[in-house]
Design goal:
Layout: H1 3-7, H2 19-26, H3 29-36, H4 43-50, E1 56-57, E2 72-74, E3 77-79, E4 83-85, H5 91-94, H6 98-109, E5 113-115, H7 123-129, E6 134-138, H8 143-157, E7 161-165, H9 175-180, H10 182-187, H11 190-193, H12 197-201, H13 204-212, E8 219-224, E9 228-230, H14 235-240, H15 246-255, E10 260-265, H16 268-276, E11 281-284, H17 298-309, E12 314-318, H18 324-332, E13 337-340, H19 342-351, H20 353-374, E14 387-388
Parallel strand pairs: 4-13, 5-6, 6-7, 7-10, 10-11, 11-12, 12-13
Antiparallel strand pairs: 1-14, 2-3, 8-9
């Protein structure tokens, strides 16, 4: 066992929440709060996790289960687990391994990794790192020319699906980032950075790794025609110039012949429109509470979307997944699989690839235990009969 693996082994890390204090101690406050925080008053951020308490289980006891089946299929791909690793921007700031480390861990576990456009590693390197499916999450940063180039690179590198995020016409106001000077640290002048440098100097281990990794990475997967890779600029400004519309989705559909997942759906209307535009799947998502504060928790929005889709395309869900019981509840309520973002990102920030491995192990073990306690032989057998859902949710 490596030193990194020992640092996140039991009993030091027993559940996903145990990663948070370790990550907080290892990385600067600005980076931790970027990972940990949400928009405005963080109401939706908190509700994403709390809402799972409103759904309770209906176990079937005195049932002997020889083996629990955790395998499922998503977009036709056979997966060893029903949870995927969600796109997390700036992962290389959390640990030098960043997206490459997370993709490698996902591949070892037999589940997909979804690469964010806002990545510090080249998409080709991320694709090579994983032995499993890898999806590319698309923002239109840099304009259509840059998007066309990245879509073609993703196709040539062997990415298996495209995930189009529709809930970012502008970036949500994440107040922690403003207080911590995230904008100044990422794209400000030397003088603008000075007031925020003490928080970086307070984490010498992280700072040494950061400097050895080459310092502030650019965006190697956003190549602007005639200019080259986009520097790591203020993302608020970049996203404001790259809103995705339904017309853009039709254009993307013409460019990408593989499956497309529309991420950021919270209503029946958007679910139906996604189907009309040829989506193979949708992810019920509020961007982890990082965009519009005050929208419903993802689990709370799930029944409306499930009803609207009526089995015509696959449904994923992301937001608030911290335990295997959370995964099981989402599957019971109609999701084919879930996306986990912070759950593995805390592990990445705490211990790199070993932390991601441990986070996946925790969720896998949690989920198998939950199935056995429910008296359910397989994730594919989970349905509404295993849960009590508040009556006003339907």
């Amino acid at each position: 066992m490596t030193r990194a693996s020992r640092s996140v082994a039991s009993p030091r890390v027993v559940c996903i929440e145990d990663f948070r204090p370790i990550a907080r101690r290892r990385i600067p406050k600005s980076v931790f709060d970027y990972l940990d925080g949400g928009a405005e008053g963080e109401v939706t951020l908190r509700e994403n996790c709390r809402v799972f308490n409103d759904v309770t289980f209906r176990p079937r006891h005195a049932v002997a289960i020889a083996e629990c089946g955790l395998c499922t299929t998503v977009l036709g791909f056979s997966l060893s687990l029903p949870f995927l690793l969600a796109p997390v921007g700036y992962s290389r700031l959390m640990h030098p391994g960043g997206e490459v480390a997370a993709a490698r861990a996902a591949g070892k576990a037999g589940t997909p990794y979804i690469l964010s456009t806002i990545s510090g590693h080249k998409l080709e390197d991320v694709r090579r790192a994983s032995s499993g499916p890898v999806f590319y999450q698309l923002y239109l940063m840099g304009g259509r020319g840059a998007a066309e180039a990245s879509i073609e690179r993703a196709r040539a590198a062997g990415f298996n699906a495209l995930v189009v995020t529709i809930d970012t016409p502008v970036a949500g106001i994440r107040e922690r980032d403003y207080r911590n000077g995230m904008k100044e640290l990422v794209s400000g002048s030397v003088f603008e950075k000075i007031p925020y440098l003490p928080q970086l100097l307070s984490r010498p281990g992280w700072l040494a790794s950061y400097l050895l990794d080459g310092g502030l990475p650019g965006l190697p997967n956003v190549v602007i025609p005639g200019k080259g890779p986009m520097p790591l600029v203020d993302i608020n400004a970049a996203l404001a110039e790259s809103a995705v519309t339904w017309a853009d989705l039709r254009w993307i559909r013409d460019l990408w012949k593989g499956p497309i997942v529309v991420k950021g759906v919270l209503t029946a209307d958007d679910a139906r429109r996604s189907m009309d535009e040829g989506a193979a799947a949708i992810s019920v998502s509020n961007h982890g509470g990082r965009q519009l504060d005050g929208v419903p928790a993802s689990l709370r929005a799930l029944p409306e979307v499930v009803k609207a889709v009526n089995g015509q395309i696959e449904i994923l869900m992301d937001g608030g997944i911290r335990r295997g019981t959370d995964v099981a509840k989402a599957l019971c309520m109609g999701a084919r699989g879930v996306l986990c973002g912070r759950a593995y990102a805390y592990g990445l920030a705490a211990a790199g690839e070993a932390g991601v491995d441990r986070a996946i192990q925790i969720l896998r073990t949690d989920l198998e235990r939950t199935l056995r306690l429910l008296g359910c032989p397989s994730v594919n057998a989970l349905d509404r009969s295993y849960v009590n859902v508040p009556k006003d949710w339907d």
